Amino acid sequence: MEILEATPKMVEEQMEFTVEKQPHPLQRSFTMWYLRGDRTREWLDCLKQLVAFNTVEGFWAIYNHILPPSRLDFGSDYYVFRKGIKPMWEDDNNAKGGRWLISIDRTKRSARLDAFWIELLIALIGEQFEDSEHICGIVVNCRHKGDKISVWTRDAEKDDINLRIGMQLKKLMDIPDSEQLLYVVHKVAAVRSGSMVKPRLSIPRQLGSESSSQME
Ligand code: MGP
Fold first, then answer.
1. Does the Cβ of 44 fall within 6 Å of ligand 1?
2. Taking Cα atoms as reference points, which of 157, 140, 158, 137 lies closest to residue 149?
C-alpha cells in the first residue's frame, strides 16, 4: 500500500495492524510472582508464579490488570525476577547475593509506595541500571510496620558493583541523604530476623564508620 494513495482511515488501520503485530521486545524476559502472607503456611507454599512477559505491551497488560502494592493486604509481596530465577534465597542465582533495601516510612506510604514500585519496574525492564547483569530481580513487601522495596543482586561480595547499583537506585528514587539505603546479604538475613540484620553496605556510609561503606 502506497501511503500517498491511502485514506487517513487506511493509514490508521495499517498502523494498528503494525502495532499489534510487532510488540516491542524487552532485552530480557521476566516473571512476576505474588506472595499472600499466611502465617499458618510455610513461606514457600505462599509464593505463586503469576505470569512471564518479554514485551513492553505484555508488561503493561499485566501491570494494568493487577492491584498496585498499596491495595494489597499487609503481608503480601510482589516479585519481578529475570525469567529462570526463583525469587528466593535458595535459588543458585541468589544464594551468594544480597539486596538493597528501601524502607518506606508509614507516613510516606501514599506518596511513595506505588510511585517507587512503578519507577523501579520500568528501570528494571528497560535495563536502565548500568550493572543490570548483576540484578536478579526486585521485590515489594507490603507491611503494616512499614513497606519495603528491594533490589536483589547476584553477588554480595562485589561491593563496587553493588554500590554503583545502590547509588543509581538512590538517584532514581530521589532518596535524600537523611534516609539510608542498606545492603543486606541474604545468608545473613536468612539466619536473623528483621531489625537485627547487620548490613554489609550503606548509602550514605554509616555515620562514624571508618574508611569505607563496607561494614562487614
Ligand atoms: P520477609 O518477607 O522478607 O520480611 O521475611 P518481613 O515479613 O518484613 O519480616 P522481617 O523478618 O524482615 O521483619 C519474612 C520471613 O519470610 C523470613 O523470616 C523467612 O521465614 C521467610 N522468607 C523470606 N524470604 C525472602 C525467604 C526466602 O527467600 N526463602 C525462604 N525459605 N524463606 C523466606
1. yes
2. 140
Q: Which residues pair with 30 in a beta bridge?
A: 53, 82
Task: Tell the residue number behind the cell numbers 512503578, with chain if given.
Answer: 118
pLDDT in tens, 170-190: 999 999 999 999 999 999 999
Report whether pLDDT(3) > 70: no
Q: Which residue has the cell 551468594?
A: 96
Regarding the beta carbon of 74 and ligand 1, being less than 6 Å apart is answered no
Return the C-alpha cell found at 198: 547487620
135, 153 Cβ separation under 8 angstroms? yes
CA 171 to centroid of chain Cα atoms: 15
- The residues, any chain, with a CB within 8 Å of residue 134's CB and separated by 6 or more, are 153, 154, 155, 158, 161, 162, 165
Read off the pLDDT of residues 57-85 as tens digits, 9 standing for 90 and up: 999 999 999 999 999 999 999 999 999 99
- Residue 35, strand partner residues: 47, 77
Kindly report the protein residue whose alpha carbon is nearest to atom 6 of ligand 1.
194
User: Where does the pLDDT of residue 194 fall: very low under 50, low under 70, confident under 90, or very high at 90 and above?
Assistant: low
Question: CA 99 to CA 137: how far, in whole Å?
Answer: 9
> What three-state secondary structure class fits 131?
coil
Q: Are 165 and 134 in contact (CB under 8 A)?
A: yes
- 3-class DSSP assignment, residue 149: strand
Atom of ligand 1 nearest to the CA of 145: 8
pLDDT tens, 102-124? Answer: 999 999 999 999 999 999 999 99
To the question of pTM greater than 0.85 for the whole model, the response is yes
